[in-house]
Amino acid sequence: MATLELININKKFGDFTAVNDINLRVEEGEFVTLLGPSGCGKSTLLNMTAGLEDVTSGEIHINGEKVNHLGPFERDVAMVFQNYALYPHMTVEENIGFSLRLRKRPKNEIQDKVRKVAEMLELDKFMHRLPRELSGGQQQRVAIGRAVIREPSIFLFDEPFSNLDAALRLKTRGEIKELHQRLGVTSIFVTHDQEEALSLSDRIAVLRLGQLEQFGTPEDVYSRPASKYVARFIGTPQMDIFAGSFVNADGLHFQIGEAGIPLPVSFKIPDTAVDVGIRAEFVTLGSKGFDSAIRLVQPVGPFTYVTVDWQGGCVTARVNGVSHMKPKETIKVEIDPEGLLFFDRITEKRMDLQ
Ligand SMILES: Nc1ncnc2c1ncn2[C@@H]1O[C@H](COP(=O)(O)OP(=O)(O)OP(=O)(O)O)[C@@H](O)[C@H]1O
Ligand SMILES: [Mg+2]
Question: DSSP letters of 132-158?
Fold first, then answer.
């Protein structure tokens, strides 16, 4: 187990800045996700941590020691790649044991460790198969086994589930989480899937165009997003955002079109223009509020997401169970003021006003 510290890390490819002044400290045993859309610099940051890519400037510290000058093996990190990168001509057993053979460990020690790792990952029945004779999920587990057997102080995962189908993704996600609970090894996990990040991480680093937008717990990024960008990137369905203004008539309201949402007396009115973000679980459809036309009804099993035309835009409500509402029907929309998130319209940063 180890701590990892990235200090003022920059990476340029020619004139293009792929990673822009990132500072991040990962504690011992922590599971941290690098989350962001394609091209935001996740893999570049992970590769620099692994020692596969040089930094343009900045320092990488593992356990308080600067490791910039060390190669991947000397950093004591093990990486699991998106494409697994298994040796095609080696069996499962040989793939898993490769790094120990490279280190010239005694044969019986290698056999023993390979068996233990294979049992843990339920690969013991496939020991003599080649990678091409395995399913995607099994290949994925071999790649993890190859990393686990090295007993590294840090695991690095670069989108390890992206070649798996949806059901296998979920299953493998659970396995990775259990593995982390069992081994407690400091882990950095790259994904562009916000749900994956929320479900796995102790903390999530949300990246945008090579910069760190927010670093916080799943609860922080979901309930207290630093900016509109984070608020819209995290959560299903995507948060709805409306422009509006404060009106003081019969108590303080936030006015969106014709709808005035009541605010508590303790509310701190800012002196800048603000937009408001509304998550679907704070929208109620029923008999209170303004008449609105239903536009879209999307059942997802335990909930139905119902999108309605509202105050010049669209707002989505989360309805429990299967809803029998239909597009074009009229319904009333009520917003729970507790769930409102306020953003500075210019800087797009969230403001704590409640
Ligand atoms: N060797 C390179 N030369 C030039 N530009 C590069 C190189 N490697 C990456 N980039 C650029 O740096 C940016 C970040 O790339 P990176 O691979 O880190 O993104 P990512 O967040 O991992 O994206 P994805 O989710 O698609 O894997 C991209 O715009 C990419 O085109
Ligand atoms: Mg990548």
Answer: GGS-HHHHHHHHHHHHHTT--SEEEEE
Show which of 183, 205, 233 is a domain's final residue: 233
Q: Is 192 in the pocket of ligand 1 (CB under 6 A)?
A: yes
> pTM to 2 decimals?
0.94
CA nearest ligand 1 atom 18, residue:
41
**How far apart are the C-alpha atoms of 213 and 309, rounded to whole Å?**
31
pLDDT of the residue at 205: 98
Q: At what angle do helices 166-183 and 136-148 cross, to 10 degrees?
A: 20
206 shares a domain with 285: no
175: domain range? 4-233
Q: How far is the CA of 130 from the centre of ligand 2 (A)?
A: 27
Mean pLDDT of the chain: 94
* Total tally of structural domains belonging to the chain: 2
Q: What is the CATH number of the domain that holds 148?
A: 3.40.50.300
Q: Are residues 264 and 326 in the same domain?
A: yes
As a whole number of angstroms, the distance between CA 303 and CA 80 comes to 35
What would the pLDDT profile of 143-160 be if each residue is shown by its tens digit? 999 999 998 999 999 998
